[in-house]
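In pairs, describe these two lines:
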Amino acid sequence: MPQCRVNFYRACRFTLVALLLSNLTAQAQAEYSAVSKTESLQFNGITDLSEQQVGRIVFKQISEQLELPVNVELIPAKRAEREVNLGDAAGEIMRIYAYGVDNSNVIRVPTPYYSLKTTAFALRDNLHAQHLVNNINQANIGLVHGGKHTSHYVHSAKSVIQVSSTEQMMKLVRYKRVDLALTSYLDGLQFLKHNSIHCIVPLKYDVASHNLYIYLNHQHADLVPLFDDKIKQLKRTGQLAKMISDAEAQVLAMQ
């Protein structure tokens, strides 16, 4: 067989193989893309906190605009943190800045989309309570275990009792086991309102204010710019403020 014909057949064979491989690769990419669009990513939030309920509503709306299917589960704070660090969840919907400092396996979406105010709650007739807000080292305080925005008070207060829910924390105040309960303003207000408790009130002047961010496990780092650009866009148009206002009203109306 002439050499030119051999070369021609070889060239045809290589071309056919290349086309087959190309088709298989394109098919695999299409299948992967289809799976990624239909499978929901698991995100965690913290249970029994009103801000997290607001965050779940707003986060899901942001994800819908990105056409990103997500499932959000509100669970205890320590478990939520552990699952994201291990990669068992794609991320957390709402944490303060320090969360990213404490956890090296996560990436912070740079632009915050919500904020919380750490507020002290006390018995209405506790005339010494307002003084204690500015002198935490003299106060006996109650905290919900696992909350990052109140965690550093564990070492600065006179004494601390940590519990698993806002309800348990407010009981500590009611029965005078602690002077102050520290939680977010919205969370404390919602609990008092829904339980018709009038003997406990939020004190003047917030203890602290914190921006809240979306966090992602490193294996989902490609989602960071998508979330960041969308949050910036929603802020520019004023749509984010409307989404937050509606979500807060919805959470405060929950029974």
